[in-house]
Every structure is written in structure tokens, then in C-alpha cells.
Amino acid sequence: MFFHITLERNMQLHPRHFGPHLRDKLVAKLMKDVEGTCSGRHGFVVAITGVEDIGKGLIREGTGFVTFPVKYQAVVFRPFKGEILEAVVTMVNKMGFFAEAGPVQIFVSNHLIPDDMEFQSGDMPNYTTSDGSVKIQKDSEVRLKIIGTRVDATEIFCIGTIKDDFLGVINDPGVTA
Amino acid sequence: MSMEPFNRMVKLAARAFYDDVSIMGESQSKPGRIDNRGMTVIVLDALTRRQWVREEDLAKALKLHSKQLRRTLRFFEEEKLITRVHRKESAKGAKNFNAAIAATRDTQQTTKEGEEKMKMHMHSYCCLDYAQILDVVRYRMHRMKKKLKDELDSRNTIQEYICPNCGRRYSAFDALQLVSMEDEYFHCENCNGELVAESEKLAAEQLGDGDDNARKRRHEKLKDMYQKMEDQLKPLIAQLDRVKDLPAPEFGTLQAWEARARAASQANGDSNASDSKNIQGQGYGGTPMPFLGETSIEVALSGVEAKEETEPDIKPTALKVIPPWMIKQGMNLTIEQRRGIMPEPNVEHNSDDKKSSVDDKKPSADRDNEKSLQDEYLKAYYAALVKRQEEEEASRRIQQQTELSTSAAEEPVDRRVGMKSKREDDEDIEWESAAGTGNSSQSYKLADLNAEADASDDDNGGDDDDIAWEEG
């Protein structure tokens, strides 16, 4: 799920950046550092929408670096258990398939794939129904439900299922827009 | 005792969960294996009737091989149903334990002092741990219900993978890291073996059916299983509810329990205290005494109750008064035993007749005042009684003398028969020796008692001829 929240961070700046564009340099550095990262608490930081406040800089002892406490607003993405997402299949395996929903990776094991879908290996391994009507392969879009998340300090993994109602393939990759 | 509902719970749990567990040894060959399912139930039932018990004793009592029993007990220990203690003891220490058990059960036991084996053997003791059993059983039920409910409700189970080589378990979360191998399977991190999915399905699936049908059938099966489980476990659940509010019986560690039991036995005044010598054996002589004191039979296990004691120890100083109905003709008894008072020189009779004695069945060492009162009462009583009996005696003596004169002729006849008379003599001697052990304590006191004993012995010999049924 996406959230728009205020975060805080202490940014260190090298003295060579001191000058008339100090603030811009600071914001640029912030974006470079934070966007795309993941924290266990907030989830993936998708984009920084604005900088709220930059506090007074503190010169560190020994080095010339200056530390600024920066408050900023960002869009974050954090998956939850029980959430239903759309994801794109990245890899199909005998044990299940991997899908990506933005920055988060989700694994659906074959135990949670409906029983009528069987694995078929080949150059394009896929799961397909007995009558061939539904096929899950690379780049298929799939709606899945998250049944478990594992949150490390800097990573989030998810396990999903497509065995419930209204889940499964949305879009056939063969159909090109 | 608050153990009864707990014991019932243990028995129910044993029959519900452990009745088809068979404890096999690894070294037994297949045809040689005996099907011993249900032994667990028997062992658990036996443990509900005991507290701390030595495993060898339990094996003997249940007539099981100690090795099998040990395997079973090891299984219980892993299931967290019992606590086990292994300690090195000499055989003497083991006897201390025996005495402690005997004290709990109120049986008499004489400890054999004298065999001093200082070899230390490893003795194992075990005891049911009720509080833990309650927790374990409840947790087990909770897990069973949870597993079924999970399967039943939402199928939100996270797959687990096992490496068949090294047995390492992985969750589906780890799979995200494990995967990136190009050959379609998950490989173990250590040994690179192929991981096998652990199927958590309780209901078997039938492939080839339409999706809905198979699902429905599985659903039904799970529902049935859940229902059956509830029904079959209903008595156990009821018992658990009853029991979970009660405090569980606590036996404490082995040492604490032993010390308690020994203290209880000593307070009890029974002669099975393991460290006191068995002096009382002499005091009992040839007569089983009526129960001394007002000791209560109930042994408190959780906390020793202070027992009402009439005497801490049975002192062998006072000879017991034998009630008249116990006295058989031919018993070598002192006047004291017959009458219950110190014999006065005035009232000296060849005591072959029964004197009635007061039922002084409670010689209380610490109630001396009462005793002196009783003695005085006895004296007065006997003084009156003696007079009456003297008259009876006088009449009887006349009878006896006439009989003796008649039987005097018989005696030499008997002696000529040889063996028979000898046997009689032997039996007289036996009586003497038996009475002798009884009287040996008296010999410390009064010399004239012994003399009297001999005198009475001769007379008894005379009586024996008259009354033949004595020597049986």
C-alpha cells in the first residue's frame, strides 16, 4: 500500500559544496541517497515529494563535514499481509513463480497455485490449465494476495497466493496493446 | 487429596494421544519386534499411583524389561510429561529411598544394616510433573485445532521446504534468496541438494477432478476430521477445564521429597525410620500389638502436616500389657505382662492362671501423670480382683492337684515313648527361647522375674500334658 509520510534524516555535506547553492545541493544529495531504498519500518521510498525543513548545520569535530537534519515528505510503499496486489511475473519455476509489484518481490509457490494449473517446462516455462485457457508465464500480469511478509532491516519479501477467488491472471502477455 | 482429578486427566490424555505409540529398539530385527503398543498407557497409569519412584522398582512392579521401560520413560521425558533424576548412589542410599517410599505407604519395613556396599551405581528416579502435563496437553490440543482450522479456513499456509540430505528446513521466504539457480529447483545452501516441498495437506487430494469438486471434498474431509476430533476429545477437554483452576500437586525435587517422607515417617512413630535401629522388634515379642497412639494414616504429600503424636518413639522400657484374650496357656509371660503393674511381693502367685488386666493400650511416655494415676487405679483394682481370684484359684488348685496326681503316672509313660516326649521337650525349649528373647529385656531389670519364669515354665509343662492342643 502507498503512503505519503514525513521522514527525517541527517545529511552530511562535504565543504566543497558550500556556497550559494548549498540548499539545492543538499536536496539533491538527499534524493540520491534515499529514493529507491527500503527501510523495514516505512517500506520502500518511492519518491520524495518535497523538503519540509532543513535545520541548522552542525560542523563535525575533526572533519569539515557538516550535518544537517532534514525533514522531507515522501511516497513510500509498504506491503501488508492480506493485501491484494497486481504484479508482473518475472520468473517461472517448478516450485512456483516470482512476481514483482513495483519494488517488492513476491513469490507464489506451486502449493498456492490452483491445482488445475500444471507446470510446463520449455524455453518459456509456464503454468497452464488443462484446457490451455489460462497461462502464467513471464511478463503476465497477475493479481495475487499477500499471505506473508518478511521484513528485514533493509529488505521486504512477500509470499502470495492466487488460489482464492478473483485472483490469477489478468492480462495475457500475448495480447499486445 | 487433590491428585484425583489430575490423575484422571493424565489417564485420559495417555489413552487419547499415546495409546498407539510403540517404543521400538533400533537393534531389533523386524520379525523379532514385539508389538508393544499401549505400554505407554500402562506406564503412565502406574506413575499416577506413585510419586517419586525408582525406575528399577517400577520395572519390577510392572514386570517389564528395564531397558524397554527406560526407553519409554525417555520418550515421556521428551514429551515433557515426567521429570527424571539420575544420581549416583551407593546401595545404602537406595535403601534410604526405599524407606522413604515405605513411609509414604505406611508399610512396615526393617532396614538391613550391615551390608555396606560402597559401590556407587547410577540410580534413576522419575515422577509425573502434573503442572507441565497440563500445559503440554493444552498446547497439543491448541496446535491440533489450529492446524485443522488453518487448512479449513483460508489455506494461508506458507510453504516449507526440506533438504533431504542435511535435513535443513527453509521457509518460502527464504526461497526468494535460494532460487536464482538456473535449473528450476531450489537447492540447499549447504549441500546443494534439491529441496522438497513439505506438504501440509491433511486431506488427500484427488487430481483430475474439477477444481471446485476437489476443493469441496477436501473441505468436507477436513470438517469431518475436526468434528471427530472434538467428539473424541470431549472427555479430556472437560477434565482439563475442571483441572486447570486447581493447583497442581507438587512433589518437589527428589531430595526434598525424600527428606519430607523420612521426616513424616519418623514423626509417625512407625518402625520404618531408616536411620534408627530396629529396637522395637524385641518389644513386640511374640504378640502383635494393637496400634499405638493416635497417628493419622493419611500422609500429606504437598506439605507435611503436623501429626498428632502420642509418643515420638516407642521406648522399649515398658513391657506391654497383654490383654487377657491374647494370652494363651503356655505362654511364658511375666506378671507384668499379664497384669500391667509391677509385681508386688505380696501378690506373688505361681502365675499360671490368667489375670485380667486393664486395657492399657496406650502407654504414653509423655503422659506420666496419667500413667501413675492408672497404676494406682490398677493396684486398687487388682487388690479387689485378687481376692476374688484367690478363691477361684483355691478351688482350681484342688482340681489341678488331683489331675496332676493322675497324670503323674502318665508322664513316665510318655517319656518312655521316646520321640514324642522329646518333641514335647523340644517344643518346651522352643517356647523358652521364644519367650527368652521376649524376656531378655526383663533380665536387665529384675532377677526374680527370671526365677519366676522358670518356675512357671515347669508348671506350664504340667499343663501341657493336660491340654494337648497347645503344641500344634
TrEMBL record, chain A:
Q: Which GO terms describe its cellular component?
A: P-body; RNA polymerase II, core complex
Look up the domain of life of the source: Eukaryota
Q: Which UniProt keywords apply?
A: DNA-directed RNA polymerase, Nucleus, Transcription
Example of a GO MF term? translation initiation factor binding
| Record-level GO BP terms | positive regulation of nuclear-transcribed mRNA poly(A) tail shortening; positive regulation of translational initiation; transcription initiation at RNA polymerase II promoter
Cellular compartment(s): Nucleus
Instruction: Cite the InterPro entries for this sequence.
Output: Rpb7-like, Rpb7-like_N, S1_domain
Where the record annotates domain RNA polymerase Rpb7-like N-terminal, the positions are: 8-64
Q: Which residues cross the membrane?
A: none
The S1 motif domain is annotated at: 79-156
The protein's job, in short, is: DNA-dependent RNA polymerase which catalyzes the transcription of DNA into RNA using the four ribonucleoside triphosphates as substrates.
Q: In which family does this protein belong, per the annotation?
A: Belongs to the eukaryotic RPB7/RPC8 RNA polymerase subunit family.
Protein name (record): DNA-directed RNA polymerase subunit
Species: Zingiber officinale (Ginger)
